[in-house]
């Protein structure tokens, strides 16, 4: 680290552009989000045709007394949990598998994973939707070809849990590569001597994984987990595209889609903002755990 | 340093925005006064249709006529999906620069759009327009909010029961005469022809559901002084909704397919020969004639509870209106008058089967038009409308009624619970 | 990895290849469907190959529905976002790794927290902010690509800075000292020495910014309602119809949308992996 005079001044110059953008387009909107959630803010107010009324926590009161909000919050949490666990399990298992095979199969796996990773969310959703289409989908064709009764014309998006499962499968498909790649790099970074020592002690593979690799990977795992939680909790595109905006009778709504509907379809921007605030607060709590995990992992920030 | 300058501009804009709004939530500046330029591009939004080509042809003709009569004017038409109209119009009201000058919109959305300050009062313009006197008064009422007129009725939309004559004959059935018979007939058809839907209707097809609700003696809401109170959870309304939901069952129209169907997909299924009956409007004729059901169907009024009665139809229809933010007010009004005038309503009738809104024109087209009779009969038997309040658009956008129907149909909630939840959400919207 | 080497490796390798096939299959199916003639797409028994590949779906997508225009819009947004975010995040990363000043740790923590903000929750305020901005600078307002550039720039910055920090920190300090001895100013050093050295890292970082802007659905859906300004993700939904989805066109559109990202990814994959590992480790 060089220490020259004028560092602070130079730093300000170098940081200013990014700081301005972040303050204007991230900081200020967060402030606005909180502010709007305390107002009666409908289309009339948005168009400037009616005065704004400060209504305090009225939007929150309405939100918390709405049974649907709690139902949506509950299923968002459960859905995100399934996606996170699935992503970590698949990504972790494949990272370990990748360390056990030679370069050619590993490259194939990485290439395929890279493809899934690179697929835009909308494209991924449409592909999976088509594979699982009731009439023209390959999956129903194969399943009924295997003699499974009632699979011809089966609608995967009709039953609530089936629809969630389908979306979760797509989400895991496009998000496990990140976990796999980071964990693979993490395992590779473990000094060979450590593993050698474990082997000489006569530890089994499973024991080595559990008592040597996992503890060493803990900070990395914590980061991957938190990142996954944040991604999956605020999912929008996949649910919106695959369940047609929230499924039959709104059974597949998640918080983000719900907030979007309240704000932009029903033009209740105040209530929509309140949902956004709740979502942000929940995720910031998760972030606190993340920071703590980083610290405990012995990582230095500076 | 081009990027640098752009960045500076962006920064300035952001800072400007912050300073401009200070501590209050961002709100638009009051709209600049509507302009009245006589040249330029006139932007028109019309609804997309299952079969758009004939509509497009008529509109193109009108646009050409208008452009010929007004030099320096170009008419640009954009077709908007009915499903996404709430967001599209919201965006137009929020960003006047992207808004059209003239737009087609459903009469159920009128109150909400007017409350949002979206459409211009056309009262004075209509008084000086000769055609206006012949608009059926009850139809013109659907264009009014608090005594002011915000649009010109473009066509009347009445729905009735379409059925396949060839199938009914082959299976020895007759058109149903009560709602109960409608259900049993539909069931019987699917029993005999399991590859067909007994009737294709959808969980999201509210205007097909409403006649059942009204026929059972129920209503959506009642007026309580100045306020509205939902009545969808009363016994009769519930019975009507449940009757409709009986159609969304595996033995008629399986919910796995039908729970998410809208009006246009219901009609499309009938047109494609996938169902023996459907509930469709006069305006759906073209779409049906374009499918395999062409020439093998007939239409009767949707029956009510009692034999010989007709279920009250929803007084649907679309209006053409001028947006308040238009910069071409006179041109926009003139174009509205042209497209919604007698000449082009007649052409739209020929092209799409849309029932005209002029009394004399209605009479003229009904003569010798066997097809129109069931719709006119339904119209004269009495029609109903949704509660005339700006909050209806919100209830509609929140899918309150489709959700209740879907819940009953799929068994997710029993009818009393589903309708109670719907009533609560309606009341919450009415109060807001 | 000798500790894991056992006779079971053959099984593991077969398994790996099979899994790779399963993971890649949806993409194969997308490409295949895009190349199938319409009759085969609508056939009741889909076959996993086609004997009559055709460009008809791509042709329909590109000509009939003006997909080219949407593609161009997406490219413009993504490229501008990448360029700006690289410039800004590079400067910020240099400041955060090379300069010593008070409040640096606080800034780093804020940067970390900023990455965690659920940006989707900000749709509502940003919608109104963009509307107001648009009244002053129209190109940055609603229904202009500028509004999308701005939001994605803001959202990709925190992670880009974080990731670049790793690459900049990896450049030996001696290099800077040598430059200083040569009398190079700090500014010149930053752009003429540091920038080229960090370039591979910049490319890796750019993939993520690119993907962010390219994939966005929510903001494009909310901010842009005018057809000419629409980006790819929304354009694909046009082919979902009430009666019969045009799957051939949907898959052709999805292919057009996926290929650029995929190419980009494959090109920078190695840097990406090391960059991510560095960024994740903080």
UniProtKB/TrEMBL annotation, chain A:
Pfam families given in the database record: BPD_transp_1
PROSITE patterns: ABC_TM1
One GO CC term, this protein: plasma membrane
Organism: Streptoalloteichus hindustanus
InterPro entries, A to Z: MetI-like, MetI-like_sf, UgpAE/MalFG_permease
Name of the molecule in the record: Carbohydrate ABC transporter membrane protein 1, CUT1 family
Membrane-crossing segments per the record: 12-31, 69-96, 108-131, 161-187, 208-230, 269-291
Superkingdom, natural source: Bacteria
Family: Belongs to the binding-protein-dependent transport system permease family.
Main location: membrane
TrEMBL record, chain B:
UniProt keywords, alphabetically: Signal, Transport
Stretch forming the signal peptide: 1-28
Gene Ontology CC: one annotated term: ATP-binding cassette (ABC) transporter complex, substrate-binding subunit-containing
A GO molecular-function annotation: maltose binding
UniProt GO BP: maltodextrin transmembrane transport; maltose transport
Pfam family, one: SBP_bac_1
Superkingdom: Bacteria
PANTHER family, A to Z: MALTOSE-BINDING PERIPLASMIC PROTEIN, MALTOSE_MALTODEXTRIN-BINDING PERIPLASMIC PROTEIN
Family per similarity comment: Belongs to the bacterial solute-binding protein 1 family.
Listed name of the protein: Carbohydrate ABC transporter substrate-binding protein, CUT1 family
Organism this protein belongs to: Streptoalloteichus hindustanus
From TrEMBL, chain C:
A Pfam family of this chain: BPD_transp_1
Entry's localization field: Cell membrane
Annotated GO biological process: transmembrane transport
Organism superkingdom: Bacteria
InterPro entries: BP-dep_ABC_trans_perm (IPR050901), MetI-like (IPR000515), MetI-like_sf (IPR035906)
GO cellular component: plasma membrane
SUPFAM superfamilies hit by this protein: MetI-like
Transmembrane segments: 12-31, 70-94, 106-129, 149-173, 193-214, 247-268
Keywords, ordered alphabetically: Cell membrane, Membrane, Transmembrane, Transmembrane helix, Transport
Membrane protein topology class: Multi-pass membrane protein
Residue ranges occupied by any ABC transmembrane type-1 domain in the UniProt entry: 71-268
Similarity comment: family membership: Belongs to the binding-protein-dependent transport system permease family.
PANTHER family noted in UniProt: INNER MEMBRANE ABC TRANSPORTER PERMEASE PROTEIN YCJP, MALTOSE TRANSPORT SYSTEM PERMEASE-RELATED
Record protein name field: Carbohydrate ABC transporter membrane protein 2, CUT1 family
Organism, scientific name: Streptoalloteichus hindustanus
Phylogenetic classification of the source organism: Bacteria, Bacillati, Actinomycetota, Actinomycetes, Pseudonocardiales
């Amino acid at each position: 680290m060089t220490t020259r005079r004028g560092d602070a001044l130079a730093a300000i110059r170098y940081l200013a552009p990014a700081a301005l953008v972040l303050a204007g387009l991230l900081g200020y909107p967060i402030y606005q989000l909180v502010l709007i959630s305390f107002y009666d803010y409908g289309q009339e107010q948005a168009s400037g045709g009616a005065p704004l009324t400060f209504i305090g926590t009225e939007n929150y009161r309405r939100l918390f007394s709405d049974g649907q909000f709690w139902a949506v919050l509950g299923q968002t949490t459960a859905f995100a949990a399934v996606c996170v666990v699935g992503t970590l399990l698949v990504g972790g298992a494949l990272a370990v598998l990748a360390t056990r095979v030679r370069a050619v199969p590993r490259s194939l796996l990485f290439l395929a994973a890279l493809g899934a990773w690179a697929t835009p969310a909308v494209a991924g959703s449409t592909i999976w939707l088509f594979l699982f289409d009731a009439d023209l989908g390959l999956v129903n064709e194969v399943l009924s070809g295997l003699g499974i009764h009632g699979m011809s014309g089966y609608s995967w998006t009709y039953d609530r849990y089936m629809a969630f499962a389908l979306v979760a499968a797509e989400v895991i498909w496009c998000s496990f590569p990140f976990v796999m790649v980071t964990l693979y790099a993490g395992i590779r970074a473990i000094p060979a001597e450590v593993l050698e020592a474990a082997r000489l002690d006569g530890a089994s593979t499973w024991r080595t994984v559990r008592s040597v690799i996992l503890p060493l990977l803990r900070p990395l795992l914590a980061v991957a987990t938190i990142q996954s939680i944040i991604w999956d909790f605020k999912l929008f595109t996949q649910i919106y595209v695959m369940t047609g905006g929230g499924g039959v009778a709104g059974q597949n709504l998640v918080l983000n889609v719900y907030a979007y509907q309240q704000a932009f379809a029903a033009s209740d921007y105040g209530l929509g903002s309140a949902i956004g605030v709740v979502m942000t607060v929940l995720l910031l709590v998760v972030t606190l755990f993340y920071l703590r995990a980083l610290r405990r992992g012995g990582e230095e920030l500076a | 340093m081009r990027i640098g300058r752009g960045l500076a501009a962006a920064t300035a804009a952001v800072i400007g925005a912050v300073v401009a709004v200070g501590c209050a939530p961002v709100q638009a500046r009051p709209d600049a006064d509507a302009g009245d330029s006589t040249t330029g591009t006139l932007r028109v939004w019309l609804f997309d249709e299952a079969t758009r080509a004939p509509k497009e042809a008529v509109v193109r003709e009108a646009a050409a006529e208008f452009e010929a009569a007004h030099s320096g004017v170009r008419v640009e038409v954009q077709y908007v999906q009915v499903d996404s109209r709430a967001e599209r119009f919201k965006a137009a009201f929020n960003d006047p620069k992207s808004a059209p000058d003239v737009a087609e919109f459903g009469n159920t959305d009128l109150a909400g759009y007017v409350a949002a300050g979206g459409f211009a009062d056309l009262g004075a313009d209509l008084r000086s327009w000769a055609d206006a006197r012949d608009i059926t008064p009850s139809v013109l009422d659907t264009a009014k909010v608090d005594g002011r007129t915000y649009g010109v009725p473009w066509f009347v939309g009445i729905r009735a029961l379409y059925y396949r004559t060839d199938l009914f004959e082959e299976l020895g059935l007759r058109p149903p005469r009560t709602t109960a018979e409608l259900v049993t007939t539909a069931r019987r058809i699917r029993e005999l022809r399991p590859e067909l839907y007994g009737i294709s209707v959808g969980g999201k097809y509210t205007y097909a559901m409403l006649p059942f609700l009204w026929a059972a003696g129920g209503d959506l809401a009642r007026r309580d002084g100045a306020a509205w109170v939902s009545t969808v959870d009363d016994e009769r309304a519930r019975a009507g909704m449940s009757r409709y939901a009986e159609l969304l069952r595996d033995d008629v129209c399986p919910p796995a397919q039908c729970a998410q169907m809208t009006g246009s997909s219901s009609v499309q299924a009938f047109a494609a020969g996938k169902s023996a009956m459907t509930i469709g409007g006069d305006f759906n004729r073209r779409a049906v004639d374009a499918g395999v059901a062409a020439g093998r169907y007939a239409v009767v009024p949707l029956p009510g509870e009692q034999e010989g009665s007709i279920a009250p139809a929803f007084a649907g229809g679309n209006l053409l209106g001028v947006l308040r933010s238009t910069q071409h007010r006179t041109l926009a009004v003139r174009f509205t008058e042209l497209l919604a005038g007698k000449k082009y309503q007649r052409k739209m009738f020929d092209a799409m089967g849309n029932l005209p809104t002029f009394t004399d024109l209605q009479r003229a087209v009904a003569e010798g038009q066997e097809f129109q009779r069931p719709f006119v009969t339904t119209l004269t038997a009495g029609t109903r409308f949704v509660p005339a309040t700006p909050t209806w658009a919100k209830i509609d956008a929140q899918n309150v009624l489709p959700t209740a129907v879907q819940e009953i149909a799929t068994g997710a909630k029993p009818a009393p619970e589903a309708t109670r939840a719907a009533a609560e959400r309606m009341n919450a919207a009415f109060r807001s | 990895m000798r500790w894991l080497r056992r006779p079971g490796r053959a099984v593991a390798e077969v398994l790996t290849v099979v899994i790779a096939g399963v993971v890649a299959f949806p993409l194969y199916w997308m490409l295949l469907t895009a190349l199938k003639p319409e009759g085969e797409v609508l056939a009741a028994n889909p076959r996993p190959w086609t004997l009559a590949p055709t460009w008809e779906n791509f042709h329909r997508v590109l000509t009939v529905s003006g997909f080219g225009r949407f593609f161009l819009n997406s490219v413009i947004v993504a490229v501008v976002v990448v360029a700006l975010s690289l410039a800004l995040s590079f400067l910020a990363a240099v400041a955060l790794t090379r300069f010593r000043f008070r409040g640096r740790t606080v800034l780093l923590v804020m940067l970390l927290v900023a990455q965690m903000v659920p940006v989707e929750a900000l749709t509502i305020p940003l919608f109104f902010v963009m509307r107001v901005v648009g009244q002053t600078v129209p190109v940055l307002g609603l229904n202009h690509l500028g509004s999308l550039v701005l939001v994605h720039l803001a959202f990709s910055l925190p992670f880009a800075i974080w990731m670049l920090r790793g690459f900049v920190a990896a450049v030996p300090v001696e290099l800077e000292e040598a430059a200083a001895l040569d009398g190079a100013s700090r500014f010149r050093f930053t752009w003429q020495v540091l920038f080229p050295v960090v370039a591979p890292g910049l490319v890796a970082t750019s993939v993520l910014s690119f993907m962010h802007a390219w994939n966005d659905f929510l903001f494009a859906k909310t901010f842009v309602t005018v057809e000419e300004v629409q980006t790819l993700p929304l354009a694909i939904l046009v082919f979902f119809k009430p009666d019969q989805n045009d799957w051939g066109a949907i898959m052709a559109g999805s292919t057009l949308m996926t290929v650029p990202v995929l190419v980009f990814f494959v090109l920078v994959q190695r840097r990406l992996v090391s960059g991510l590992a560095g960024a994740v480790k903080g």
